[in-house]
């Protein structure tokens, strides 16, 4: 029975593979699904293993590492953001309802390369989870956190393999900009109390993320409403994915606000 199920999955993948984008076929970690699945599984095994390892240990002090990591990720996100905006503008791409096309224009290929770096950055961002566990910040290891890191990596692979251009670039631009803000904040906060007093804008971080997903939801629904030239299945996936984040982040924001009100009473 298990063997039959595996065969059906393989047959389905072979059929889907016929529709993959030929331009990204030779990109590392795109063509072959096995390394991608292995990384995906190892993320969860790593969480389980590290939690057990740290169970009876003191938290690591990683301030210098956190400063370097977060500032580096902010710079990477900024580079990806600027490149995506620059090439999208030069190509005359629309922010909403940009159709998916297989173009070998040099600027399009450079934009694809930038999209690939964004995808690879999602693997590096698994380190966020690693640092939470090593510093014993387990309260931040929420369902939302794990869902975000695991799902965005897998979704980026799907996009890179099948539909790496069009409206997805708008989502990349949004997310990269938000990550510049987020990683800059975390990098500065790692300097300690002498800097934290200048980080009054922390309270707006979750609001910025919710605005991001509202815009992403608008882009995704516009693709369906206006019949944009994009695969229908991916349109629906985009709507559901953006909606899931709106619900999860909205719930997080509501709980944080209620907690703050209780402290004030």
From TrEMBL:
GO biological process, any: fatty acid elongation, monounsaturated fatty acid
Localization (cell): Membrane
Name of the protein in its database record: Elongation of very long chain fatty acids protein
Organism per entry: Chironomus riparius
Membrane topology category: Multi-pass membrane protein
E.C. designation(s): 2.3.1.199
Family, per entry: Belongs to the ELO family.
Pfam families noted in UniProt: ELO
Reaction(s) this enzyme catalyzes, per UniProt: a very-long-chain acyl-CoA + malonyl-CoA + H(+) = a very-long-chain 3-oxoacyl-CoA + CO2 + CoA
Lineage: Eukaryota, Metazoa, Ecdysozoa, Arthropoda, Hexapoda
InterPro entries to which the protein is assigned, alphabetical: ELO_fam
Bilayer-crossing regions: 33-54, 66-85, 116-134, 146-163, 169-192, 204-226, 232-253
Entry's Gene Ontology cellular component terms: endoplasmic reticulum membrane
Any one Gene Ontology molecular-function term assigned to this protein's record: fatty acid elongase activity
């Amino acid at each position: 029975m298990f063997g039959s199920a595996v065969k059906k999955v393989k047959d389905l993948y072979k059929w889907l593979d016929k529709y993959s984008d030929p331009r990204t076929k030779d990109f590392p970690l795109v063509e072959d699904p096995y390394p991608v699945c292995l990384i995906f599984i190892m993320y969860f095994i790593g969480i389980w293993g590290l939690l057990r390892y740290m169970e009876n240990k003191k938290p690591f002090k990683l301030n210098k590492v956190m400063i370097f990591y977060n500032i580096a990720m902010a710079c990477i996100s900024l580079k990806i953001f600027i490149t995506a905006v620059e090439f999208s503008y030069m190509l005359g791409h629309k922010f909403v309802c940009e159709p998916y096309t297989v173009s070998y224009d040099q600027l399009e290929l450079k934009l694809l390369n930038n999209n690939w770096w964004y995808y690879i950055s999602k693997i590096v961002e698994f380190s966020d989870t690693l640092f939470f566990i090593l510093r014993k910040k387990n309260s931040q290891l929420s369902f939302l956190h794990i869902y975000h890191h695991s799902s965005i990596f897998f979704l980026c692979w799907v996009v890179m393999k099948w539909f790496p251009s069009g409206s997805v670039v708008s989502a990349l631009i949004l997310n990269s900009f938000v990550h510049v803000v987020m990683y800059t904040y975390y990098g500065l906060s790692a300097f300690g109390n002498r800097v934290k007093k200048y980080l009054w804008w922390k309270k707006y971080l979750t609001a910025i993320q919710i605005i991001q997903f509202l815009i992403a939801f608008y882009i995704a629904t516009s693709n369906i409403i206006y019949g944009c030239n994009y695969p229908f299945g991916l349109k629906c996936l985009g709507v559901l994915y953006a909606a899931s984040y709106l619900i999860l982040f909205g719930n997080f924001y509501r709980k944080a606000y209620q907690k703050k009100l209780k402290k004030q009473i």
